[in-house]
Amino acid sequence: MPDSLPDAHTLITQLADAIAPTLTPETYIVGIHTGGVWVAECLHALLKSAQPLGTLDISFYRDDFSRIGLHPQVKPSNLPFDLEGRDILLVDDVLHSGRTVRAAMNELFDYGRPATIRLAVLIDRGDHELPIRPDFVGLTLNVPKHQNINLSRLDDGHLTLSLA
Amino acid sequence: MNPQLTEDGKLHHLLTLDGLPRAILTQILDTAESFMDVGEREVKKVPLLRGKSIFNLFFEPSTRTRTTFEIAAKRLSADVVNLNISTSSQSKGEAILDTVDNLSAMHADMFIVRHSQSGAAHFIARHVAPHISVVNAGDGRHAHPTQGLLDMFTIRRYKGAFHNLRVAIVGDVLHSRVARSQIHALTTLGVPEVRVIGPKTLLPVGIEQMGVKVFHTMEAGLKGCDVVIMLRLQNERMKSARLPSAQEYFKFFGLTSEKLALAKPDAIVMHPGPMNRGVEIDSAVADGPQSVILPQVTYGIAVRMAVMALLAGN
User: Fold this and answer.
1) Does some domain include residue A82?
2) Is B286 among the domain residues?
3) B209 CB-near residues (< 8 Å, 6+ apart)
């Protein structure tokens, strides 16, 4: 484990560089609330995407609803475009079990049938529980099970990573 | 202790808005906002209540409320069973609980209850197993909490906030469970001035204690209002000699364009339905630019989805 975590914006820039050659005019960026939306906003700006940014709150698609109930602060999903036949770049901050990504894909399909979905994550911390792997990753990091890695945003919009 | 809440203060039944904290009302409205979008999508469903069984127990007839509860439950992917049980075939009390026990044995997860007797939903809520939630869809003159919530949702959508509003509720407050739920919600959400307008025979004695101002003429009551809520005048009230005639009621308390002009120019007009056109409301107003009566119906689906999702998850 490194003592200090890398700068989030450096990782996002590297992520954007990796994505850029694969970007098509039909690629629509969709961030998953809340951290994924922050990363998606940065990517959207860095990649100079001409398409509107989408956001997803997957609370209504979680597989643990019957155990923990509804998330106390559900935000509306917002996909201001038709998904049919489009290329979707799904963005999240941390990939862990893969259950959030599964829920997000289920939700996307209720809006329409995209041509492709690719996944970009800032951190892949391992311990996957589903056959879901990122297409683009900022940093692969083995985080012990008892620890959490969090992305937070300061008032000035600066993103920082922390372990807790 | 509030019988609607779990030990840690979460909503388990929705029986009345009386005594519910503002935080819970706001949580329901916020959650409903997220569900609004589901109605606009290609697939108008989310998988939240997949595998849950919801029983609509209607001991009193209803079209709109039952239908919107049914659509809401289906959009949450629940299985819905509608039972329209006429009260005449029921010997009350014990028979209701027999019905509930039988449906519980069929693995019901939630009951949506409408009954002509006040307290019916409370009665069932006290009786059911702890994993079952009960939603009051209208009980006698007592409460109609989801209608009250959808009205608050409508007001918030059009007016943005509650803290600066003057709201008038017009008509038969005495017999109205809707009015009671609205008054509780409006005062809890911080509306500074709630007015009730109606003839003395249709306003309950001592209603001022609910925190409302009483008016007996539209001219005085509507002045400066941001929201005008009309109540349905039930025909049987005419027969019970509380009112001389529908024509006379319309003359004094029916909402016409002229009377509406007394309220603020951007005032919205609401009605819980079904409307008596030409009795409590003129068609020109009901179908006019200030009417939000049909949006109320649409919002009712999202609000009922929010209530059912929160109850099933708590």
Assistant:
1) no
2) yes
3) none
